[in-house]
Protein backbone atom coordinates (compact mmCIF):
# COMPACT_ATOMS: atom_id res chain seq x y z
CA UNK A 1 0.00 0.00 0.00
CA UNK A 2 1.60 3.25 -1.09
CA UNK A 3 0.51 6.79 -0.30
CA UNK A 4 -0.59 7.42 -3.91
CA UNK A 5 -3.23 4.70 -3.48
CA UNK A 6 -5.14 7.13 -1.24
CA UNK A 7 -6.08 8.99 -4.44
CA UNK A 8 -8.56 6.19 -5.14
CA UNK A 9 -9.79 5.98 -1.54
CA UNK A 10 -11.27 9.51 -1.61
CA UNK A 11 -13.80 8.97 -4.48
CA UNK A 12 -14.54 5.46 -3.15
CA UNK A 13 -15.44 6.85 0.28
CA UNK A 14 -17.48 9.71 -1.23
CA UNK A 15 -19.47 7.31 -3.40
CA UNK A 16 -20.15 4.76 -0.65
CA UNK A 17 -21.23 7.53 1.76
CA UNK A 18 -23.86 8.82 -0.71
CA UNK A 19 -27.03 7.53 1.03
CA UNK A 20 -26.02 8.99 4.42
CA UNK A 21 -25.19 12.56 3.37
CA UNK A 22 -28.09 14.80 4.50
CA UNK A 23 -27.39 17.61 2.00
CA UNK A 24 -28.19 15.16 -0.83
CA UNK A 25 -31.64 14.38 0.59
CA UNK A 26 -33.25 17.82 0.93
CA UNK A 27 -35.76 17.31 -1.88
CA UNK A 28 -34.41 20.26 -3.90
CA UNK A 29 -32.64 20.14 -7.25
CA UNK A 30 -29.05 20.95 -8.31
CA UNK A 31 -28.78 22.27 -11.88
CA UNK A 32 -32.31 20.97 -12.42
CA UNK A 33 -31.31 17.41 -11.43
CA UNK A 34 -31.60 15.33 -8.22
CA UNK A 35 -28.55 16.17 -5.98
CA UNK A 36 -27.77 12.49 -5.50
CA UNK A 37 -27.54 11.97 -9.27
CA UNK A 38 -25.19 14.95 -9.69
CA UNK A 39 -23.05 13.78 -6.73
CA UNK A 40 -22.51 10.18 -7.90
CA UNK A 41 -21.85 11.21 -11.51
CA UNK A 42 -19.25 13.82 -10.46
CA UNK A 43 -17.36 11.42 -8.15
CA UNK A 44 -17.60 8.68 -10.74
CA UNK A 45 -15.89 10.99 -13.26
CA UNK A 46 -13.12 11.71 -10.72
CA UNK A 47 -12.30 8.00 -10.35
CA UNK A 48 -10.62 7.96 -13.78
CA UNK A 49 -7.95 10.64 -13.11
CA UNK A 50 -7.31 9.11 -9.66
CA UNK A 51 -6.67 5.65 -11.14
CA UNK A 52 -4.57 7.06 -14.01
CA UNK A 53 -2.41 8.85 -11.42
CA UNK A 54 -1.85 5.55 -9.58
CA UNK A 55 -1.25 3.65 -12.84
CA UNK A 56 1.39 6.18 -13.94
CA UNK A 57 3.28 5.70 -10.68
CA UNK A 58 3.05 1.89 -10.92
CA UNK A 59 4.24 1.86 -14.53
CA UNK A 60 7.13 4.20 -13.70
CA UNK A 61 8.19 1.80 -10.93
CA UNK A 62 7.87 -1.24 -13.21
CA UNK A 63 9.88 0.56 -15.90
CA UNK A 64 12.62 1.43 -13.43
CA UNK A 65 12.73 -2.04 -11.88
CA UNK B 1 -45.94 -11.46 -38.65
CA UNK B 2 -45.74 -7.86 -37.40
CA UNK B 3 -43.01 -5.48 -38.59
CA UNK B 4 -41.62 -5.29 -35.03
CA UNK B 5 -41.34 -9.08 -34.71
CA UNK B 6 -39.72 -9.38 -38.16
CA UNK B 7 -37.11 -6.71 -37.35
CA UNK B 8 -36.40 -8.27 -33.95
CA UNK B 9 -35.91 -11.79 -35.37
CA UNK B 10 -33.70 -10.41 -38.17
CA UNK B 11 -31.71 -8.49 -35.55
CA UNK B 12 -31.15 -11.68 -33.52
CA UNK B 13 -29.93 -13.49 -36.64
CA UNK B 14 -27.46 -10.65 -37.37
CA UNK B 15 -26.15 -10.83 -33.77
CA UNK B 16 -25.58 -14.60 -34.08
CA UNK B 17 -23.92 -14.18 -37.50
CA UNK B 18 -21.67 -11.54 -36.01
CA UNK B 19 -20.76 -13.95 -33.21
CA UNK B 20 -19.91 -16.72 -35.67
CA UNK B 21 -17.66 -14.36 -37.63
CA UNK B 22 -15.50 -14.21 -34.47
CA UNK B 23 -13.80 -17.38 -35.77
CA UNK B 24 -13.30 -18.82 -39.26
CA UNK B 25 -13.31 -22.41 -37.98
CA UNK B 26 -14.68 -23.80 -34.70
CA UNK B 27 -12.04 -23.99 -31.98
CA UNK B 28 -10.87 -27.45 -30.89
CA UNK B 29 -8.96 -26.24 -27.85
CA UNK B 30 -10.68 -25.31 -24.58
CA UNK B 31 -8.10 -22.69 -23.58
CA UNK B 32 -8.39 -20.92 -26.94
CA UNK B 33 -12.20 -21.21 -26.83
CA UNK B 34 -12.36 -19.74 -23.29
CA UNK B 35 -9.70 -17.00 -23.15
CA UNK B 36 -8.59 -16.63 -26.80
CA UNK B 37 -4.81 -16.70 -26.94
CA UNK B 38 -4.54 -14.51 -23.81
CA UNK B 39 -3.54 -11.76 -26.21
CA UNK B 40 -6.60 -9.51 -26.61
CA UNK B 41 -5.60 -5.87 -26.99
CA UNK B 42 -6.78 -3.01 -24.77
CA UNK B 43 -9.67 -2.01 -27.10
CA UNK B 44 -11.00 -5.57 -27.36
CA UNK B 45 -10.89 -6.09 -23.60
CA UNK B 46 -12.52 -2.69 -23.11
CA UNK B 47 -15.52 -3.69 -25.26
CA UNK B 48 -15.76 -7.05 -23.45
CA UNK B 49 -15.68 -5.43 -20.02
CA UNK B 50 -17.89 -2.47 -20.90
CA UNK B 51 -20.38 -4.98 -22.30
CA UNK B 52 -20.48 -6.82 -18.99
CA UNK B 53 -22.25 -3.89 -17.32
CA UNK B 54 -24.81 -3.36 -20.09
CA UNK B 55 -27.17 -6.31 -19.60
CA UNK B 56 -30.94 -6.70 -19.75
CA UNK B 57 -30.91 -5.40 -16.16
CA UNK B 58 -29.34 -2.09 -17.23
CA UNK B 59 -31.71 -1.76 -20.15
CA UNK B 60 -34.99 -2.85 -18.58
CA UNK B 61 -34.42 -3.62 -14.89
CA UNK B 62 -32.87 -0.30 -13.93
CA UNK B 63 -35.80 1.64 -15.41
CA UNK B 64 -38.09 -0.64 -13.38
CA UNK B 65 -36.05 -0.09 -10.21
CA UNK B 66 -36.34 3.71 -10.57
CA UNK B 67 -40.06 3.29 -11.25
CA UNK B 68 -40.52 1.57 -7.87
CA UNK B 69 -37.67 2.94 -5.69
CA UNK B 70 -36.64 6.33 -7.16
CA UNK B 71 -33.03 7.45 -6.55
CA UNK B 72 -32.29 4.26 -4.57
CA UNK B 73 -31.56 2.74 -7.99
CA UNK B 74 -28.49 4.98 -8.11
CA UNK B 75 -26.69 2.42 -5.90
CA UNK B 76 -25.60 0.90 -9.23
CA UNK B 77 -23.23 3.82 -9.98
CA UNK B 78 -21.17 3.58 -6.73
CA UNK B 79 -21.12 -0.21 -6.97
CA UNK B 80 -19.69 -0.17 -10.49
CA UNK B 81 -17.25 2.72 -9.92
CA UNK B 82 -15.90 1.38 -6.61
CA UNK B 83 -15.90 -2.13 -8.08
CA UNK B 84 -13.61 -0.88 -10.87
CA UNK B 85 -11.28 0.62 -8.25
CA UNK B 86 -10.96 -2.83 -6.64
CA UNK B 87 -10.55 -4.51 -10.03
CA UNK B 88 -7.79 -2.02 -10.91
CA UNK B 89 -5.70 -3.64 -8.16
CA UNK B 90 -7.03 -7.22 -8.24
CA UNK B 91 -7.38 -7.77 -12.04
CA UNK B 92 -3.69 -7.42 -13.01
CA UNK B 93 -2.60 -9.74 -10.14
CA UNK B 94 -5.08 -12.42 -11.24
CA UNK B 95 -4.05 -11.96 -14.88
CA UNK B 96 -0.36 -12.53 -14.04
CA UNK B 97 -1.14 -15.64 -11.99
CA UNK B 98 -3.52 -16.92 -14.68
CA UNK B 99 -0.95 -16.53 -17.45
CA UNK B 100 1.77 -18.19 -15.38
CA UNK B 101 -0.36 -21.08 -14.10
CA UNK B 102 -2.79 -21.58 -17.00
CA UNK B 103 -6.05 -20.69 -15.24
CA UNK B 104 -9.27 -20.69 -17.25
CA UNK B 105 -11.78 -20.32 -14.40
CA UNK B 106 -12.34 -19.00 -10.89
CA UNK B 107 -12.26 -22.62 -9.66
CA UNK B 108 -8.80 -23.15 -11.27
CA UNK B 109 -7.50 -20.15 -9.32
CA UNK B 110 -8.88 -21.37 -5.99
CA UNK B 111 -7.81 -24.99 -6.40
CA UNK B 112 -4.27 -23.95 -7.38
CA UNK B 113 -3.76 -21.17 -4.83
CA UNK B 114 -4.96 -23.36 -1.94
CA UNK B 115 -3.63 -26.64 -3.36
CA UNK B 116 -7.10 -28.18 -3.01
CA UNK B 117 -9.22 -29.57 -5.83
CA UNK B 118 -12.10 -29.91 -3.33
CA UNK B 119 -12.13 -26.15 -2.76
CA UNK B 120 -12.15 -25.51 -6.52
CA UNK B 121 -15.00 -28.01 -7.03
CA UNK B 122 -17.20 -26.80 -4.15
CA UNK B 123 -16.75 -23.13 -5.06
CA UNK B 124 -17.68 -24.02 -8.65
CA UNK B 125 -20.87 -25.76 -7.49
CA UNK B 126 -21.85 -22.69 -5.41
CA UNK B 127 -21.04 -20.41 -8.36
CA UNK B 128 -23.23 -22.52 -10.64
CA UNK B 129 -26.09 -22.46 -8.12
CA UNK B 130 -26.15 -18.66 -8.08
CA UNK B 131 -25.16 -18.00 -11.71
CA UNK B 132 -27.68 -20.32 -13.42
CA UNK B 133 -30.74 -18.19 -12.42
CA UNK B 134 -28.91 -15.19 -13.91
CA UNK B 135 -28.63 -17.05 -17.23
CA UNK B 136 -32.33 -17.85 -17.05
CA UNK B 137 -33.04 -14.17 -16.38
CA UNK B 138 -31.35 -13.22 -19.66
CA UNK B 139 -33.44 -15.77 -21.58
CA UNK B 140 -36.63 -14.62 -19.82
CA UNK B 141 -35.61 -11.09 -20.89
CA UNK B 142 -35.58 -12.22 -24.55
CA UNK B 143 -39.23 -13.23 -24.22
CA UNK B 144 -40.32 -10.25 -22.16
CA UNK B 145 -39.01 -7.79 -24.76
CA UNK B 146 -41.02 -9.18 -27.67
CA UNK B 147 -44.09 -9.89 -25.56
CA UNK B 148 -44.19 -6.25 -24.51
CA UNK B 149 -43.50 -4.66 -27.88
CA UNK B 150 -45.87 -6.92 -29.84
CA UNK B 151 -48.46 -7.49 -27.10
CA UNK B 152 -48.42 -11.19 -28.05
CA UNK B 153 -47.29 -13.93 -25.60
CA UNK B 154 -46.55 -16.37 -28.47
CA UNK B 155 -44.00 -13.90 -29.89
CA UNK B 156 -42.24 -13.97 -26.53
CA UNK B 157 -41.92 -17.77 -26.63
CA UNK B 158 -40.63 -17.66 -30.22
CA UNK B 159 -38.09 -15.02 -29.22
CA UNK B 160 -36.82 -17.07 -26.26
CA UNK B 161 -36.44 -20.25 -28.32
CA UNK B 162 -34.81 -18.53 -31.31
CA UNK B 163 -32.49 -16.40 -29.15
CA UNK B 164 -31.34 -19.39 -27.07
CA UNK B 165 -30.67 -21.52 -30.15
CA UNK B 166 -28.66 -18.73 -31.78
CA UNK B 167 -26.63 -18.13 -28.58
CA UNK B 168 -25.80 -21.86 -28.36
CA UNK B 169 -24.69 -21.96 -32.00
CA UNK B 170 -22.36 -18.97 -31.89
CA UNK B 171 -20.97 -19.81 -28.46
CA UNK B 172 -20.12 -23.40 -29.49
CA UNK B 173 -18.57 -22.16 -32.74
CA UNK B 174 -16.54 -19.21 -31.52
CA UNK B 175 -16.39 -19.19 -27.70
CA UNK B 176 -15.03 -15.97 -26.20
CA UNK B 177 -14.09 -14.67 -29.66
CA UNK B 178 -17.78 -14.79 -30.57
CA UNK B 179 -18.64 -12.78 -27.46
CA UNK B 180 -16.00 -10.21 -28.44
CA UNK B 181 -17.37 -9.92 -31.99
CA UNK B 182 -20.91 -9.34 -30.71
CA UNK B 183 -19.74 -7.03 -27.89
CA UNK B 184 -18.62 -4.39 -30.42
CA UNK B 185 -22.08 -4.38 -32.01
CA UNK B 186 -23.87 -4.60 -28.66
CA UNK B 187 -22.06 -1.70 -27.02
CA UNK B 188 -22.56 0.56 -30.05
CA UNK B 189 -26.26 -0.26 -30.57
CA UNK B 190 -27.28 -0.14 -26.91
CA UNK B 191 -25.38 3.10 -26.26
CA UNK B 192 -26.94 4.91 -29.24
CA UNK B 193 -30.46 3.63 -28.50
CA UNK B 194 -30.44 4.33 -24.74
CA UNK B 195 -28.90 7.80 -25.21
CA UNK B 196 -31.50 8.69 -27.86
CA UNK B 197 -34.33 7.41 -25.65
CA UNK B 198 -33.02 9.33 -22.61
CA UNK B 199 -33.61 12.53 -24.61
CA UNK B 200 -36.68 11.57 -26.67
CA UNK B 201 -38.79 9.95 -23.91
CA UNK B 202 -38.73 12.94 -21.47
CA UNK B 203 -39.23 15.43 -24.33
CA UNK B 204 -42.20 13.49 -25.73
CA UNK B 205 -43.98 12.81 -22.45
CA UNK B 206 -43.03 15.74 -20.18
CA UNK B 207 -41.46 18.50 -22.29
CA UNK B 208 -37.83 17.71 -21.34
CA UNK B 209 -35.55 16.35 -18.62
CA UNK B 210 -35.74 19.56 -16.52
CA UNK B 211 -39.51 19.42 -16.51
CA UNK B 212 -39.49 15.76 -15.38
CA UNK B 213 -37.45 16.54 -12.26
CA UNK B 214 -39.33 19.78 -11.44
CA UNK B 215 -42.61 17.85 -11.44
CA UNK B 216 -41.12 14.99 -9.40
CA UNK B 217 -39.72 17.38 -6.78
CA UNK B 218 -43.19 18.88 -6.43
CA UNK B 219 -45.38 15.77 -6.76
CA UNK B 220 -43.24 12.79 -5.58
CA UNK B 221 -40.36 14.19 -3.44
CA UNK B 222 -39.99 10.85 -1.59
CA UNK B 223 -38.57 9.35 -4.81
CA UNK B 224 -35.68 11.87 -4.76
CA UNK B 225 -34.79 11.52 -1.06
CA UNK B 226 -34.54 7.76 -0.36
CA UNK B 227 -37.82 7.71 1.54
CA UNK B 228 -39.53 4.86 -0.31
CA UNK B 229 -40.28 1.93 2.01
CA UNK B 230 -37.79 -0.91 1.47
CA UNK B 231 -35.45 1.32 -0.55
CA UNK B 232 -33.93 3.61 2.09
CA UNK B 233 -30.31 4.55 2.91
CA UNK B 234 -29.45 1.22 4.59
CA UNK B 235 -30.79 -0.75 1.61
CA UNK B 236 -28.83 1.53 -0.77
CA UNK B 237 -25.57 1.08 1.16
CA UNK B 238 -25.83 -2.66 1.79
CA UNK B 239 -26.87 -3.37 -1.82
CA UNK B 240 -23.93 -1.29 -3.07
CA UNK B 241 -21.51 -2.98 -0.63
CA UNK B 242 -22.49 -6.56 -1.46
CA UNK B 243 -22.31 -5.74 -5.18
CA UNK B 244 -18.93 -3.94 -4.87
CA UNK B 245 -17.43 -7.01 -3.16
CA UNK B 246 -19.02 -9.51 -5.55
CA UNK B 247 -17.98 -7.50 -8.62
CA UNK B 248 -14.66 -6.00 -7.49
CA UNK B 249 -13.27 -9.23 -6.03
CA UNK B 250 -14.26 -11.26 -9.10
CA UNK B 251 -17.03 -13.25 -7.40
CA UNK B 252 -18.93 -13.42 -10.72
CA UNK B 253 -17.44 -16.39 -12.63
CA UNK B 254 -18.02 -14.91 -16.10
CA UNK B 255 -15.81 -11.88 -15.30
CA UNK B 256 -12.78 -14.19 -15.37
CA UNK B 257 -12.90 -14.74 -19.15
CA UNK B 258 -12.33 -11.08 -19.99
CA UNK B 259 -9.55 -10.66 -17.41
CA UNK B 260 -7.70 -13.85 -18.40
CA UNK B 261 -8.00 -13.12 -22.13
CA UNK B 262 -6.20 -9.73 -21.85
CA UNK B 263 -2.81 -9.36 -23.53
CA UNK B 264 -1.14 -7.51 -20.64
CA UNK B 265 -1.62 -6.28 -17.08
CA UNK B 266 -1.12 -2.72 -18.35
CA UNK B 267 -4.07 -3.07 -20.76
CA UNK B 268 -6.26 -4.21 -17.88
CA UNK B 269 -5.12 -1.40 -15.59
CA UNK B 270 -5.82 1.25 -18.26
CA UNK B 271 -9.24 -0.24 -18.95
CA UNK B 272 -10.25 -0.20 -15.31
CA UNK B 273 -9.14 3.44 -15.10
CA UNK B 274 -11.37 4.47 -18.02
CA UNK B 275 -14.40 2.20 -17.42
CA UNK B 276 -15.88 4.45 -14.66
CA UNK B 277 -16.45 7.06 -17.41
CA UNK B 278 -18.66 4.54 -19.23
CA UNK B 279 -20.52 3.83 -15.98
CA UNK B 280 -22.07 7.29 -16.21
CA UNK B 281 -24.16 5.86 -19.08
CA UNK B 282 -26.37 4.09 -16.53
CA UNK B 283 -27.80 7.53 -15.70
CA UNK B 284 -29.66 7.41 -19.05
CA UNK B 285 -32.10 4.61 -18.16
CA UNK B 286 -32.68 6.37 -14.84
CA UNK B 287 -34.00 9.48 -16.60
CA UNK B 288 -36.40 7.23 -18.53
CA UNK B 289 -37.48 5.56 -15.27
CA UNK B 290 -38.32 8.93 -13.67
CA UNK B 291 -40.38 9.85 -16.76
CA UNK B 292 -42.24 6.55 -16.39
CA UNK B 293 -43.18 7.49 -12.81
CA UNK B 294 -45.00 10.58 -14.13
CA UNK B 295 -46.66 8.91 -17.11
CA UNK B 296 -47.53 5.29 -16.32
CA UNK B 297 -50.05 3.96 -13.84
CA UNK B 298 -48.72 2.43 -10.61
CA UNK B 299 -49.78 -1.11 -11.58
CA UNK B 300 -47.53 -1.19 -14.67
CA UNK B 301 -45.05 -4.10 -14.69
CA UNK B 302 -41.87 -2.21 -13.58
CA UNK B 303 -39.44 -4.08 -15.84
CA UNK B 304 -41.71 -3.40 -18.80
CA UNK B 305 -42.02 0.35 -18.26
CA UNK B 306 -39.32 1.34 -20.81
CA UNK B 307 -40.84 -0.75 -23.59
CA UNK B 308 -44.38 0.37 -22.69
CA UNK B 309 -43.32 4.02 -23.08
CA UNK B 310 -41.51 3.27 -26.34
CA UNK B 311 -44.42 1.31 -27.85
CA UNK B 312 -46.80 4.22 -27.32
CA UNK B 313 -44.34 6.81 -28.65
CA UNK B 314 -42.57 5.37 -31.71
CA UNK B 315 -43.66 3.85 -35.06
CA UNK B 316 -43.35 0.04 -35.44
CA UNK B 317 -39.98 -0.07 -37.29
CA UNK B 318 -38.31 2.08 -34.61
CA UNK B 319 -39.90 -0.02 -31.86
CA UNK B 320 -38.30 -3.01 -33.62
CA UNK B 321 -34.86 -1.36 -33.42
CA UNK B 322 -35.29 -0.64 -29.70
CA UNK B 323 -36.34 -4.29 -29.27
CA UNK B 324 -33.15 -5.42 -31.05
CA UNK B 325 -31.06 -3.31 -28.65
CA UNK B 326 -32.83 -4.90 -25.66
CA UNK B 327 -32.46 -8.38 -27.16
CA UNK B 328 -28.74 -7.94 -27.80
CA UNK B 329 -28.39 -6.76 -24.18
CA UNK B 330 -29.72 -10.20 -23.18
CA UNK B 331 -28.04 -12.42 -25.79
CA UNK B 332 -24.42 -11.29 -25.31
CA UNK B 333 -24.40 -11.57 -21.48
CA UNK B 334 -26.19 -14.93 -21.86
CA UNK B 335 -23.30 -16.07 -24.07
CA UNK B 336 -20.72 -14.94 -21.47
CA UNK B 337 -22.63 -16.71 -18.69
CA UNK B 338 -22.93 -19.91 -20.74
CA UNK B 339 -19.12 -19.88 -21.14
CA UNK B 340 -18.69 -19.19 -17.41
CA UNK B 341 -20.99 -22.09 -16.47
CA UNK B 342 -19.63 -24.63 -18.96
CA UNK B 343 -15.96 -24.04 -18.12
CA UNK B 344 -16.63 -24.36 -14.38
CA UNK B 345 -18.33 -27.73 -14.97
CA UNK B 346 -15.67 -29.02 -17.37
CA UNK B 347 -12.64 -27.81 -15.43
CA UNK B 348 -13.68 -27.96 -11.78
CA UNK B 349 -16.80 -30.08 -11.21
CA UNK B 350 -16.40 -33.09 -13.52
CA UNK B 351 -13.21 -34.97 -12.57
CA UNK B 352 -11.85 -35.19 -16.13
CA UNK B 353 -8.12 -34.57 -16.67
CA UNK B 354 -7.93 -35.30 -20.40
CA UNK B 355 -8.13 -32.06 -22.44
CA UNK B 356 -10.32 -33.81 -25.02
CA UNK B 357 -12.84 -35.01 -22.40
CA UNK B 358 -12.84 -31.53 -20.82
CA UNK B 359 -13.53 -29.95 -24.20
CA UNK B 360 -16.54 -32.13 -25.00
CA UNK B 361 -17.87 -31.93 -21.42
CA UNK B 362 -17.69 -28.15 -21.79
CA UNK B 363 -19.59 -28.11 -25.08
CA UNK B 364 -22.25 -30.52 -23.82
CA UNK B 365 -22.71 -28.27 -20.77
CA UNK B 366 -23.29 -25.19 -22.97
CA UNK B 367 -26.17 -27.01 -24.70
CA UNK B 368 -27.57 -28.52 -21.48
CA UNK B 369 -27.41 -25.27 -19.46
CA UNK B 370 -29.01 -23.14 -22.18
CA UNK B 371 -31.71 -25.76 -22.83
CA UNK B 372 -32.49 -26.09 -19.11
CA UNK B 373 -32.67 -22.29 -18.74
CA UNK B 374 -34.99 -22.07 -21.76
CA UNK B 375 -37.31 -24.82 -20.47
CA UNK B 376 -37.52 -23.19 -17.03
CA UNK B 377 -38.14 -19.77 -18.62
CA UNK B 378 -41.00 -21.26 -20.70
CA UNK B 379 -42.56 -23.61 -18.15
CA UNK B 380 -41.76 -22.24 -14.69
CA UNK B 381 -40.55 -18.64 -15.05
CA UNK B 382 -41.18 -18.01 -11.32
CA UNK B 383 -39.29 -21.07 -10.00
CA UNK B 384 -35.90 -19.38 -9.69
CA UNK B 385 -37.18 -15.88 -8.90
CA UNK B 386 -35.79 -15.94 -5.35
CA UNK B 387 -32.42 -17.24 -6.46
CA UNK B 388 -32.10 -14.35 -8.95
CA UNK B 389 -32.34 -11.93 -6.03
CA UNK B 390 -29.54 -13.91 -4.42
CA UNK B 391 -27.03 -13.87 -7.30
CA UNK B 392 -24.74 -11.29 -5.71
CA UNK B 393 -25.57 -12.28 -2.12
CA UNK B 394 -24.54 -15.85 -2.91
CA UNK B 395 -21.52 -15.16 -5.12
CA UNK B 396 -20.06 -12.73 -2.56
CA UNK B 397 -19.50 -15.78 -0.30
CA UNK B 398 -16.70 -16.88 -2.67
CA UNK B 399 -14.84 -13.55 -2.40
CA UNK B 400 -13.03 -14.16 0.95
CA UNK B 401 -11.40 -17.20 -0.67
CA UNK B 402 -10.41 -15.14 -3.74
CA UNK B 403 -9.01 -12.31 -1.58
CA UNK B 404 -6.97 -14.79 0.52
CA UNK B 405 -5.78 -16.47 -2.67
CA UNK B 406 -4.16 -13.20 -3.76
CA UNK B 407 -1.73 -13.38 -0.81
CA UNK B 408 1.81 -14.45 -1.62
CA UNK B 409 1.67 -17.06 1.14
CA UNK B 410 -1.47 -19.06 1.92
CA UNK B 411 -2.58 -17.62 5.28
CA UNK B 412 -5.41 -20.08 6.07
CA UNK B 413 -5.88 -23.82 5.52
CA UNK B 414 -8.24 -24.60 2.59
CA UNK B 415 -10.64 -26.51 4.84
CA UNK B 416 -11.22 -23.35 6.93
CA UNK B 417 -11.91 -21.38 3.73
CA UNK B 418 -14.24 -24.12 2.51
CA UNK B 419 -16.09 -24.25 5.85
CA UNK B 420 -16.48 -20.46 5.85
CA UNK B 421 -17.83 -20.45 2.29
CA UNK B 422 -20.31 -23.26 3.04
CA UNK B 423 -21.47 -21.54 6.24
CA UNK B 424 -21.90 -18.22 4.40
CA UNK B 425 -23.95 -19.82 1.63
CA UNK B 426 -26.10 -21.76 4.15
CA UNK B 427 -26.83 -18.64 6.25
CA UNK B 428 -27.63 -16.55 3.16
CA UNK B 429 -29.99 -19.18 1.76
CA UNK B 430 -31.68 -19.78 5.13
CA UNK B 431 -32.18 -16.09 5.94
CA UNK B 432 -33.45 -15.21 2.49
CA UNK B 433 -35.87 -18.16 2.51
CA UNK B 434 -37.35 -17.08 5.84
CA UNK B 435 -37.06 -13.27 5.71
CA UNK B 436 -36.49 -12.36 2.02
CA UNK B 437 -33.54 -10.75 0.24
CA UNK B 438 -33.05 -8.06 2.92
CA UNK B 439 -33.48 -8.09 6.71
CA UNK B 440 -33.99 -4.67 8.31
CA UNK B 441 -32.90 -3.23 4.96
CA UNK B 442 -29.56 -5.09 5.04
CA UNK B 443 -28.81 -7.44 2.16
CA UNK B 444 -28.91 -11.08 3.38
CA UNK B 445 -25.54 -11.73 1.72
CA UNK B 446 -23.83 -9.47 4.26
CA UNK B 447 -25.09 -11.60 7.18
CA UNK B 448 -23.75 -14.68 5.40
CA UNK B 449 -20.46 -12.91 4.72
CA UNK B 450 -20.07 -12.03 8.42
CA UNK B 451 -20.50 -15.72 9.38
CA UNK B 452 -18.18 -16.74 6.53
CA UNK B 453 -15.40 -14.40 7.75
CA UNK B 454 -15.91 -15.48 11.38
CA UNK B 455 -15.44 -19.16 10.44
CA UNK B 456 -12.35 -18.40 8.33
CA UNK B 457 -10.92 -16.25 11.16
CA UNK B 458 -11.53 -19.03 13.70
CA UNK B 459 -9.81 -21.48 11.36
CA UNK B 460 -6.78 -19.18 11.11
CA UNK B 461 -6.59 -18.91 14.92
CA UNK B 462 -6.78 -22.69 15.35
CA UNK B 463 -4.06 -23.11 12.70
CA UNK B 464 -1.84 -20.64 14.56
CA UNK B 465 -2.58 -22.30 17.94
CA UNK B 466 -1.55 -25.67 16.48
CA UNK B 467 1.67 -24.07 15.27
CA UNK B 468 1.19 -25.05 11.61
CA UNK B 469 3.18 -22.75 9.31
CA UNK B 470 1.59 -20.87 6.41
CA UNK B 471 1.98 -22.66 3.08
CA UNK B 472 4.43 -21.24 0.55
CA UNK B 473 3.28 -19.31 -2.52
CA UNK B 474 1.92 -21.97 -4.93
CA UNK B 475 3.16 -19.93 -7.90
CA UNK B 476 6.71 -20.85 -6.84
CA UNK B 477 5.92 -24.46 -7.83
CA UNK B 478 6.64 -25.41 -11.43
CA UNK B 479 3.70 -25.17 -13.82
CA UNK B 480 3.06 -28.44 -15.59
CA UNK B 481 1.14 -29.70 -18.63
CA UNK B 482 -0.37 -27.96 -21.59
CA UNK B 483 -1.75 -24.40 -21.63
CA UNK B 484 -5.06 -24.31 -19.83
CA UNK B 485 -4.48 -27.71 -18.22
CA UNK B 486 -1.76 -26.98 -15.71
CA UNK B 487 -3.68 -26.69 -12.49
CA UNK B 488 -5.94 -28.75 -10.34
CA UNK B 489 -3.67 -31.12 -8.47
CA UNK B 490 -3.71 -31.79 -4.76
From TrEMBL, chain A:
UniProt keyword annotation of Membrane present: yes
Transmembrane segments: 36-55
Annotated keywords: Membrane, Transmembrane, Transmembrane helix
Superkingdom field: Bacteria
Entry annotated with the keyword Transmembrane: yes
Protein name: DUF3311 domain-containing protein
Automatic annotation (TrEMBL), chain B:
Domain of life: Bacteria
UniProt record similarity statement: Belongs to the sodium:solute symporter (SSF) (TC 2.A.21) family.
Transmembrane helix found in the keyword field: yes
Location, primary (coarse class): membrane
Localization per record: Membrane
InterPro entries: Na/Glc_symporter_sf, Na/solute_symporter, Sodium:Solute_Symporter
Keywords: Membrane, Transmembrane, Transmembrane helix, Transport
Mode of membrane association: Multi-pass membrane protein
Protein name: Sodium:solute symporter family protein
Transmembrane segments: 6-22, 43-67, 73-95, 116-135, 155-176, 188-213, 233-260, 272-298, 318-345, 357-378, 384-407, 414-438, 444-462
UniProt entry tagged with the keyword Protein biosynthesis: no
Amino acid sequence: MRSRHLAAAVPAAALMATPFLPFLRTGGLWLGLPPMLVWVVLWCLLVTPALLFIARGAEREEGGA
Amino acid sequence: MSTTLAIALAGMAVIALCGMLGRRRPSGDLADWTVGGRNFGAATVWFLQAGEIFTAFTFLGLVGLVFTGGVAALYVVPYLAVGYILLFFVGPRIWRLGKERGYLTQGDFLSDRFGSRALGAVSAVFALLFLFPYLQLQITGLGLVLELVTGDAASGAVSMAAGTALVVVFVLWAGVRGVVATAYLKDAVTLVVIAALAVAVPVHYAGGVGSVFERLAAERPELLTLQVEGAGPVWFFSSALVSVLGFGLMGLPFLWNSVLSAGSARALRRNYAFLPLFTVVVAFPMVIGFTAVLVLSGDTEPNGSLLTLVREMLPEPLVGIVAVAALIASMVPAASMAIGISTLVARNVVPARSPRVQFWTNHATVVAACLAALLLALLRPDLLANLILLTYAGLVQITPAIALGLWRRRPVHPWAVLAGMAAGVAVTLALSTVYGAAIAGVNSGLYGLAVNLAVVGAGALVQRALGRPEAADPSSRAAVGAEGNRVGRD
